[in-house]
Known about the structure:
Blueprint: H1 12-17, H2 38-43, E1 49-54, E2 57-61, H3 69-72, E3 97-98, H4 99-106, E4 113-119, E5 126-132, H5 158-165, E6 166-170, H6 171-174, H7 180-198, E7 209-212, E8 217-220, E9 229-230, E10 235-243, E11 249-254, E12 265-268, H8 275-287, E13 291-302, E14 307-316, E15 328-334, H9 336-344, H10 356-365
Parallel strand pairs: 1-5, 10-14
Antiparallel strand pairs: 1-2, 1-3, 2-6, 4-5, 7-8, 8-9, 10-12, 11-15, 13-14
Amino acid sequence: MAGHGRWAELDDAAFMASLPLAQTDIDYDVERRGEDGLIEWLLGDAATRVVLVNGGMVAVPRHAQGASAGALFCFNDPAAPRPDATVPEGALSLALLSGAEVRAEALGDGALVIYLGLDRASEPAVPYLALDISRPAPAVNAAHVSADQGIDGAAGSLAERALRDFDWVELREFAPRATPFESGVATTAVALAAWHANQRFCPVCGAPVRPTLSGWAQTCTSPNDAGRLLFPRIEPAVITAIVDDADRILLQNNAAWRKKFFSVSAGFVEAGESLEHAVRREAREEVGVELDEVRYLGSQPWPFPASIMLGFRAHACSTEVLVDHEEVGSARWFTRDELRRAVEAGELELPGRASIARHMIEQWYGESLG
């Protein structure tokens, strides 16, 4: 921001390149989504790789120390990931299955299979599918059952075997430790699976829906609606790092969060509202601070369950903090030294590394904060 501390020289392109949920570079192959029999054909292609999704988690290869799925699950925590959530150490990768390993259940009635797209960096290009194992076990069509029992060649449903044979890591913990490509694949898979899980009925008439367009849409099953198509609705939210003339950053603790958890200002965009108006309104409503200069920074998908975070930097022209005590419990200005000391002393917990909020705070700070 012109004239306001270190941020005058920041590289926004480098900032965007650091956001783990914003690195999708898979070819969505949109024109093929509506092809009849595409999913079945891809399941028969030896090159196809399948990502397994379970709520907000993805399957990763079993690590020596192991970590239970229950301990990792923090999908609905408003300040996730939890401090007590444990994950395998080191770099993470997706547990990728072949189409043959999942074919029987993926083609069963009620299965949710999503065509994620093509990795064109490989030669030949590699198709990727996602299979949601959290849905009720589908009725398996005997015609699709082969001698291959799938994972470890063991009996039992695919979901049972997958829960036994893999570790399950919440997307917010997976993405910062995965390759940009796999982070993007996992983000898309979790986002679409969450939409299908949350919308089981037509919002217009209430009839059941079924997946179509290779999992990227739904169709209403009512005979009166002529196959109405339904597409995912994305909820835009603004998130803003606010600084003052002294180059301090304003952080706040929301009422629904853990007491030590602090982040930057954020909120959903209202109907008919511009992004910039939403930035100023949220700051005024939540912490009583007025803003003048507002600058767009970048965006990041946030599929928990269906948001996109639109990041801004803003300058405060007033510094008195007046929290609403409804949505926001407390807020305060931090210098860099004050923030570092609070983090090191365990007095303050920052957002997780998958979040755009963490990267905005660290961009202002100038380096990683632990």
